[in-house]
Design goal:
The model has no long low-confidence stretch (mean pLDDT 83). The protein has three helices and eight strands; from the N terminus they run H-E-E-E-E-E-E-H-E-E-H. The N and C termini lie far apart (73 Å). By secondary structure, it is of the alpha+beta class. A hairpin with a 6-residue loop joins strand 2 and strand 3. Strands 1, 2, 3, 4, 5, 6, 7 and 8 form an eight-stranded mixed sheet that branches.
Length: 169
């Protein structure tokens, strides 16, 4: 029995690396071009809430699907991919399935160029999120156009509200 016959050679390792790199590149969603109406402000985006993630400091992170743009020459323009919305000091708590309108600047996702830290733009790209927006409660940046009809999402939000009310000082 020869121990050398069990180890792959350098060419096999290089081939495996190249194949893995190629498969990863093919699986990565292509970043779409931003519609021209995004350069003007404000733009209104209408989309259905895919996820709601409460954050510390009275913030909510939302992800919208099936987003369409309107306002400032973006009349009924579909937005490629998903839209991430940071909602500070919300007037209401969105629920998965709600139809929301977000008014403000919509920008492509981008991260800070900090070597050695997490590349959030890359992580968002893996999730199919290519654009982001910011909304603040009390300004009318975010409005609910239609409430969710998902009973589980509504039950979850009701339970969350009751726990938060019970824990509030």
């Amino acid at each position: 029995f020869n121990g050398r016959s069990m180890r792959p050679g350098l060419p096999a390792l290089v081939a495996a690396f190249v194949l893995g790199l190629g498969a990863g590149w093919l699986a990565l969603p292509a970043a779409p071009d931003a519609p021209p109406c995004l350069s003007a402000k404000p733009v209104t985006a209408v989309g259905r809430v895919a996820s709601v993630d409460p954050r510390p400091g009275r913030r909510v992170a939302l992800v919208l699907d099936e987003t369409r743009l309107s306002g400032q020459d973006g009349v009924d323009t579909p937005l490629s991919g998903r839209l991430a919305v940071a909602f500070d000091h919300p007037d209401f708590t969105p629920v998965a399935g709600d139809l929301l309108a977000v008014t403000g600047r919509i920008r492509p996702t981008a991260g800070f160029a900090n070597p050695g830290t997490t590349d959030f733009a890359f992580l968002r790209r893996l999730e199919g999120i290519f654009f982001r927006a910011y909304a603040k409660g009390g300004r009318g940046d975010l409005t609910r156009l239609a409430a969710s009809d998902n009973p589980l999402a509504l039950l979850r939000q009701t339970l969350r509200d009751r726990v938060a009310a019970a824990l509030a000082p």
